[in-house]
Design brief:
Elements: E1 2-7, H1 11-22, E2 28-30, H2 57-70, E3 74-76, E4 80-86, E5 89-94, E6 99-107, E7 111-113, E8 130-131, H3 134-137, E9 145-149, H4 153-162, E10 168-172, H5 182-190, E11 194-197, E12 200-207, E13 213-220, E14 226-230, E15 233-236, E16 240-242, E17 274-276, H6 288-307, H7 310-313
Helix pairs in contact: 1-2, 1-6, 4-5
């Protein structure tokens, strides 16, 4: 039986592994469907402390993985489909058919952005114009025109944030009224740099001869009119999907599927010995550094919890 099993190899999972490995808990880290998490698809990370010139997202995650390995973390290439707790033992059934057993589990499975599924979206992802995070990538579009798609609070927040850098922000919304809170909607509509285009959906992200985004083809859902909006950046802000389905039978999830924390630390769940960290629980900040911080907290809380369970230590 393992002392600690960590699910997910993004910033939260790898940080939890570093801390639990250094505490001599010999963690087993199960990688899941996207080893390294969302940052592996990011060409440059400028807001992670310690890298004044920025760092490639894949390289950052690879460095964290090497750090985990240095302290003795073991890795398993598998995907967990179900968690059960039997007499205090956490039983994890994997896609491979293998059943893992642990005294504690740290769930750091992250979330994936909800995408549009339109042509050009994948082809121009990662430094070529298409992104889902203004906080992460907004500074790359300084003095450029950009497009944001969405109509809720997240889309309004992204649009407002981008006005700090961009010449113009066009907000596309498929309806004729924003779904955002009144305060956010009013602030967005009043901003001189933001132009809201109503009743309109994106149909394709277009690339120039250098393979970089140069425009978005959009369609008015009422008139059928199709036109192109010139822009260098396309920010998709229609929500995220937490990777938590496998835990839905044992843990409390909110209306959007995020795991609910039941403790002031923010990492305890309602089940003793099950901890959570990163974007599968955090739908507010969703940053690499906040995920890493939660991974640290989850690891320390797991270590403390194990120290208080002598009967498990002897099992």
């Amino acid at each position: 039986m393992e002392n600690v099993i960590i699910l997910g190899t993004g910033c939260a999972g790898l940080t939890a592994a570093i801390y639990t490995a250094r505490a001599n808990l010999e963690p087993l880290l199960i990688e899941g469907g996207q080893p390294g998490g969302q940052l592996t698809t990011t060409s440059e990370v400028e807001n992670f402390p310690g890298f004044p010139e920025g760092i490639d997202g894949f390289m950052l995650m690879d460095n964290m993985r090497k750090q985990c390995t240095r302290f003795g973390t073991r890795f398993a290439n598998d995907m967990i489909e179900k968690i059960e707790v039997i007499d205090g033992v956490k039983k994890l059934t994997a896609e491979s058919g293998k059943v893992y057993e642990a005294r504690t589990v740290i769930i750091a499975t992250g979330a994936r952005p909800r995408l549009l599924g339109i042509p050009g979206e994948q082809e121009l992802w990662g430094g070529k114009g298409v992104t889902t995070c203004a906080t992460c990538d907004g500074a790359f579009y300084r003095n450029m025109d950009v497009v944001v798609v969405g109509g809720g609070d997240t889309a309004c927040e992204e649009a407002l944030f981008l006005t700090r850098f961009c010449s113009k922000v066009t907000l596309l919304h498929r309806r004729d009224e924003l779904r955002a809170s009144k305060v956010m909607a009013d602030r967005t509509l009043a901003h001189a740099k933001i132009d809201v285009v109503w009743d309109t959906v994106p149909e394709e992200v277009l690339a120039d001869s250098d393979g970089m985004m140069h425009a978005v083809r959009v369609k008015n859902v009422k008139t059928g009119e199709v036109r192109e909006l010139e822009a260098k950046g396309f920010f998709i802000a229609i929500g995220h999907i937490p990777n938590t389905t496998f835990a839905s039978e044992i843990l409390k999830l909110d209306d959007e599927g995020y795991i609910v924390s039941d403790h002031e630390s923010g990492v305890h769940t309602e089940v003793d010995g099950l901890f959570v960290a990163g974007d599968c629980s955090d739908h507010v900040y969703r940053q690499a550094i906040t995920a890493a911080g939660m991974g640290c907290r989850a690891a320390i809380e797991a270590e403390r919890w194990l120290a208080e369970q002598p009967e498990l230590a002897e099992a």
